[in-house]
């Protein structure tokens, strides 16, 4: 990042002063129109940066690291379950899968080791029960040059997995291949067994009826988009009840956030057998061979950038680049006859201003072109940064890929395509600044960025089935993707949104958060909502990023902060006062959230506005001391009593009460994970505290929010452990919450419910 900042600073000096902004095309044209020496120096700085980002790569070192991980996996996989205990066999196999995965990633492009790592992981995955992933790994091993004399073993594994998956055609192909090989008697017998299995599958298949149950995409309820003085917006064409799905939108473009390894094609976040690009220095993975194949048209132009670790430096421009790569095939027929870049830009501008066809769905590239941008209102430093990012990515495509080869036969000169592409990247970046979304998911708690959720042996009983008492360890909410959703972006902002968006991989599912009347506008919330922020907190980003002042009903009422402040109500500690009050918020609100600041930070005190006495909050420090001693039964009893005493000072659903409940719950469950035995008194108190926490979260964030679903995992563990009573209604109500989870997490919750809760 320092190198990028240094280069951008030098380039900024070369282009200063920047002319008044007209549009993205003219902004990039100004860079391409610099005087000769300046332009040459400007481009040389970019090219040198791209060269400097190339990282040293020693294939032999990769092979050695991979071999070491594989050998560790072999030792664990071959160890007898008697050595580990009769209940540890699944942990042994999954632990080996985890080590083999490290071997797969470490090998990078050292195919002699990569093929062995894939083959061994496929063997372990097959034994554990991940048959599709094992099948893919066998194919990967063969593709990478697995030794010919041993290939029959890999093909047998593929055939076995195809049988388990009931893939008749694949099983028949593998049997045909094996029949052509010279096999010993043992393998011949296995082949005969496979033939009998194939015959059985074929007889079963003739009696089965295939059912095509494709999930609908697009609008579910009648909605309509209209244009007006506020731009385009979305309204309900018919009445929509609360909690119903309004529409689904599958994104063509997203990019992973930070360094978390998720599938680059479908955004799957819980992986058991990640398939890496061997050229990308362990920075790109896929959940399957199918996803890897589907993503090739995009990744072939990003691979070198990942190898240089360039894309994390350019922020939102990475997603802008991916939009251009994804949508260019759709735009190209409309641009191929344009004589120059000016005409190409005019064509794009015309498309962006066009109206939707009511009789057919609007392609996502057109929806994206029609998204608004506020680059014209951006500060000059911000505008220049995005201009330089767009120029950098255009030069990357020109010098490090063959992307521009596709334009050689077009009418416009190739130099015009360079200019046009940079302008298009800049336009997309500007649109994403005000229209981009962030997708999230539940992941294992404290999972390292280089680890994978389904490969943690201490958590899993069998594929996608958690061990008893492990649900709470799948409760960390984490932002995973920056995602382009042009249809969702049609919704205007309100601080009290009328929709709740669930992210399921790269699909957004929007459900009604309230009852909607026919003709009522559908609103999204672009920042923190009115219950989780004061008006001055949310007004600043709305003005800085989205360039407007909110005029929703929550912001224009006489007391716009009343819903937020009701979660900050105290009773005065002065025995002669004992009045209920809300502290008067200070500019930086340090007095409202005083407990969130470090002990050595200067924090404004909380004073009762009636008696003017400063609140000591001695009970808070006593509470923290008890938390530190949570492993002792006596301290836990005192802790439960202290929590009950909070009601005297923290009124209703005070935000601090929820935080302290979270501290108790997490501390007690951490002790349980370490082997501490709790008794019935502990469980009864934990059940009550979790109930209080969930009530507060429902009031503050909603009963279907990710915060609520995360906290619900602790309740499910207590139910599964048979440590607390619940009614059938409570049980069904909690199960109903699962529809608000992404598919891969919902499957795990359903399995846990069926394995340990419904059976009781």
TrEMBL record:
GO terms for cellular component: cytoplasm; nucleus. Keywords: Methyltransferase, S-adenosyl-L-methionine, Transferase. It comes from the Eukaryota. One of its GO terms (biological process) is methylation. GO terms for molecular function: histone deacetylase binding; N-methyltransferase activity; protein methyltransferase activity; S-adenosylmethionine-dependent methyltransferase activity. Residues 196-527 form the SET domain. Gene3D superfamilies: 1.10.220.160, 6.10.140.2220, SET domain (2.170.270.10), Tetratricopeptide repeat domain (1.25.40.10). InterPro entries: SET-MYND_domain_protein, SET_dom, SET_dom_sf, TPR-like_helical_dom_sf. This is SET and MYND domain-containing protein 4.
């Amino acid at each position: 990042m320092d190198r990028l900042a240094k280069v951008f600073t030098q380039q900024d000096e070369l282009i200063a002063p920047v002319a008044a902004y007209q549009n993205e095309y003219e902004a990039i044209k100004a860079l391409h129109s610099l005087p000769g020496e300046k332009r040459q120096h400007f481009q040389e700085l970019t090219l040198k940066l791209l060269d400097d980002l190339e990282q040293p790569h020693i294939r032999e070192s990769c092979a050695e690291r991979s071999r070491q991980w594989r050998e560790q996996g072999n030792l664990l996989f071959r160890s007898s379950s008697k050595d580990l205990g009769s209940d540890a066999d699944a942990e042994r196999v999954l632990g080996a899968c985890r080590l083999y995965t490290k071997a797969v990633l470490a090998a990078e492009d050292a195919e002699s080791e990569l093929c062995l790592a894939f083959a061994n992981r496929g063997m372990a995955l097959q034994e554990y029960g991940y048959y599709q992933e094992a099948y893919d790994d066998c194919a990967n091993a063969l593709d990478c040059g697995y030794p010919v004399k041993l290939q029959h073993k890999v093909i047998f594994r593929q055939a076995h997995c195809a049988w388990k998956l009931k893939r008749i055609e694949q099983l028949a192909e593998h049997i045909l291949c094996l029949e052509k090989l010279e096999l010993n008697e043992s393998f011949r017998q296995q082949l005969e067994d496979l033939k009998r299995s194939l015959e059985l599958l074929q007889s079963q298949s003739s009696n089965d009826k295939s059912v095509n149950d494709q999930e609908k995409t697009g609008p579910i309820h009648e909605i309509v988009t209209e244009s007006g003085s506020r731009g385009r917006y979305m309204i309900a064409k018919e009445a929509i009840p609360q909690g119903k799905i309004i529409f689904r939108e599958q994104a063509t473009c997203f990019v992973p956030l930070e360094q978390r390894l998720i599938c680059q094609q479908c955004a799957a976040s819980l992986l058991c057998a990640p398939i890496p690009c061997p050229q990308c220095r362990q920075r790109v993975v896929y959940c399957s061979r199918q996803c890897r194949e589907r993503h090739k048209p995009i990744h072939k132009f990003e691979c070198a950038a990942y190898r240089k670790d360039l894309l994390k430096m350019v922020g939102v421009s990475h997603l802008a680049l991916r939009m251009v790569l994804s949508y260019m095939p759709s735009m190209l027929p409309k641009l191929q006859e344009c004589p120059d870049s000016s005409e190409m830009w005019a064509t794009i501008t015309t498309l962006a201003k066009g109206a939707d066809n009511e009789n057919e769905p609007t392609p996502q590239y057109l929806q994206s072109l029609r998204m608004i941008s506020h680059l014209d209102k951006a500060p000059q430093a911000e505008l220049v940064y995005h201009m330089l990012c767009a120029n950098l990515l255009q030069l990357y495509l020109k010098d490090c890929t063959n992307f521009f080869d596709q334009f050689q036969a077009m009418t416009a000169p190739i130099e015009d395509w360079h200019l046009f592409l940079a302008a298009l990247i800049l336009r997309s970046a500007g649109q994403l600044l005000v229209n981009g979304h962030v997708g999230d998911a539940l992941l294992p708690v404290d999972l390292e960025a280089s680890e994978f959720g389904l490969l943690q042996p201490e958590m899993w009983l069998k594929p996608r089935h958690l061990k008893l008492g492990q649900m709470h360890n799948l409760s960390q909410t984490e932002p995973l993707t920056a995602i382009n959703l042009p249809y969702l972006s049609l919704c205007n902002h309100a601080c009290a949104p009328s929709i709740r968006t669930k992210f399921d991989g790269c699909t957004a599912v929007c459900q009604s958060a309230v009852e909607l009347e026919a003709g009522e506008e559908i609103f999204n919330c672009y920042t923190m909502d009115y219950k989780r922020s004061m008006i001055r907190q949310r007004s600043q980003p709305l003005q800085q990023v989205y360039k407007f002042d909110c005029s929703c009903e929550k912001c224009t009422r006489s007391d716009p902060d009343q819903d937020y402040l009701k979660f900050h109500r105290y009773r005065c500690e002065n025995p002669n006062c004992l009045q209920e009050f809300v502290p008067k918020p200070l500019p930086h609100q340090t007095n409202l959230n005083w407990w969130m600041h470090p002990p050595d930070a200067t924090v404004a005190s909380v004073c009762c506005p009636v008696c003017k006495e400063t609140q000591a909050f001695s009970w808070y420090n006593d509470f923290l001391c008890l938390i530190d001693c949570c492993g002792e039964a006596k301290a836990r009893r005192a802790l439960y009593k202290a929590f009950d005493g909070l009601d005297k000072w923290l009124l209703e659903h005070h935000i601090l009460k929820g935080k302290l409940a979270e501290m108790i719950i997490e501390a007690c469950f951490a002790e349980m994970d370490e082997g501490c035995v709790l008794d019935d008194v502990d469980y009864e108190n934990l059940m009550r505290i979790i109930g209080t926490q969930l009530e507060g979260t429902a009031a503050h964030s909603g009963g279907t929010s990710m915060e609520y679903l995360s906290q619900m995992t602790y309740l499910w563990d207590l139910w599964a452990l048979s440590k607390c009573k619940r009614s059938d209604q409570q049980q069904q109500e909690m199960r109903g919450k699962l529809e608000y989870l992404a598919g891969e997490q919902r499957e795990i919750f359903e399995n846990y419910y069926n394995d340990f809760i419904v059976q009781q």
